[in-house]
Design goal:
The structure is a homodimer.
Chain A: E1 27-31, E2 45-49, E3 64-65, E4 70-71, E5 77-82, H1 96-114, E6 121-128, E7 140-146, H2 151-167, H3 171-182, E8 186-189, E9 193-196, E10 207-211, H4 223-244, E11 249-254, E12 269-274, H5 281-286, H6 295-303
Chain lengths: 307, 307
């Protein structure tokens, strides 16, 4: 990984920079590049508990209810995946090998947390840039393990199940196949993965990445999958940067809830949302989204963003 | 209404300022202050079609479908309620009488659009400030009439119906009564309306305004209701301004979908969302919201924001 290039200036005070490891809670995972003993840092990616967690594993207890309201304690896990030892603020400055390390860190933490039977769902997401909700600029992503299956995931599961019951096929498999044939909304693809601006998407340049073969669980990716995904994710984010002048963005990994076996109808995928427009009263009131850029136009622009 | 105070400087180019009426599409409603013939402007509030509409009444035609996707034309109405003839950027600079005129404009347009049988739901909302999605600073709100009942409204209706079937009472009536008794989450109230920071609300300082008596339809407000609501809404927004240093905000009117008679279980209300935090990957992925300020604390701060 290049050092110096793209680094911001305030690494001395940054809790995610190499050398400042004592500024974070203890590590739950550290990845090291065994093939590079001469490197400056002793780690390539590290995962720590969030210092300001939304949910914590230590609390428990009964629900609190009165006649009208029910509350429960904020049980869960909230971790931070530090994506580089260097003070970079844009993930695309990393090489493919470092993207692979990040995807491996996601997988290893998901597998470790699955072992805790209290968890029912694990959500991994990245906020890059202030507009996307980041409060620390050093590149990182986050993991939240929940004792419930959240609303948006339940809705997506129900929609996928309906489709499966009506057609006998996984809707995400169909989407990947149809888009790959039709080309109009494809950003880029390789043998294993495809990046598309989905039909009727909510946001300008919203891009999803899907495996071409049926795959309910992100955490069952093989190292070969991770290598192919790392290349496609990095290329897609570079296209977004070039096309849209380095926008803030979120990405979210949607994976099957934790259970013994994966479903035939649900298929993990990654949703990338560049933060280009503000969500206003119409969207909050309706749950519908006014998207001023068609996905067909978004995909075409992203296809043209690299030679 | 005071002129000069709080006015921004660029009214010459503003399509919503008095004198620039020819910069907007034709009026669908104009309100005038008949008691003040000496006033500078000939109108107090005006409603026009949105010059850049998300939906338009002129299109129609069949759905467009293929094997996987269904689209329909963007049929609907999209109107702008200009809230003052003067170039104000903060609605709280208006007096109660002008708030009443705005609420009356909402009601009159909802009643007029109900007559078109193609519409099933009408949503009124306000985006004040760039962070809230406003693209023109001159104070205004918007109305969108839809040929469908949107997702968020369907979910709210379903939840309210469940509650009614289980308890035999309207959940919003119960909420207003319970909060008024308990006081902890009340911002302010008068004889007819109450402003509360709801239990388990999504956002810091999120505030809802509800009628104390059961009222499914916003557009059935009487002039007396509008007078009481104008006073409470203005006071609530002033409290938010003082407490939070004039944040950008959205408000959204949730009203019963258009049908012959109102339901026993649904009750119109207004949701006010100050834009204080960014929505990030966790919220987009889960549909749950991490709110760093409890509604109890929010309500206490808003109660203390005025002597």
């Amino acid at each position: 990984m290049a050092s110096g290039l793209g680094e911001a200036s305030d690494s001395a005070a940054c809790p995610f920079c190499a050398g400042n490891e004592n500024m974070t809670p203890p590590e739950v995972l550290v990845l090291r590049d065994e093939g590079d003993p001469g490197r400056l840092s002793s780690w390539t990616a590290r995962v720590v508990s969030n210092k300001y967690p939304a949910l914590v594993p230590e609390v428990s207890g009964p629900e609190i209810t009165d006649e009208n309201y029910t509350a429960r304690h904020g049980f869960g896990a909230h971790e931070v995946i530090v994506e580089s030892p260097n003070h970079l603020v844009d993930i695309t400055l990393l090489g493919e090998g470092q993207f692979e390390a990040i995807l491996r860190a996601y997988r290893e933490r998901m597998l470790a947390l699955r072992a805790d039977e209290r968890f029912r769902h694990i959500l991994i997401y990245k906020n890059q840039g202030i507009e996307a909700g980041a409060t620390i600029e050093h590149i990182h992503s986050q993991l939240i393990a929940l004792p419930i299956i959240p609303k948006n995931v339940l809705e997506e599961l129900a929609g996928a199940k309906d489709y499966y019951q009506s057609k006998g096929r996984c809707v995400f498999c169909d989407l990947a196949r149809k888009e790959s044939q039709q080309r109009e909304r494809v950003v880029t693809e390789n043998a294993d993965f495809i990046a598309v601006c989905p039909f009727a998407s909510r946001f300008p340049y919203e891009t999803w990445i899907l495996a071409k073969r049926h795959a309910p669980f992100f955490e069952r990716n093989t190292p070969q999958d991770e290598s192919a995904l790392a290349a496609l994710l990095r290329e897609t984010l570079i296209r977004i940067n070039r096309c849209l002048s380095h926008p803030a963005f979120n990405y979210i990994i949607h994976s099957n809830p934790i259970d013994e076996k994966g479903s035939d109808y649900y298929h993990w995928h990654m949703e990338i949302i560049p933060k280009l427009i503000r969500v206003g009263g119409f969207e909050w009131g309706s749950g519908s989204y006014i998207n001023p850029v068609t996905p067909e136009h978004s995909a075409q622009s992203l296809r043209q963003a690299l030679p």
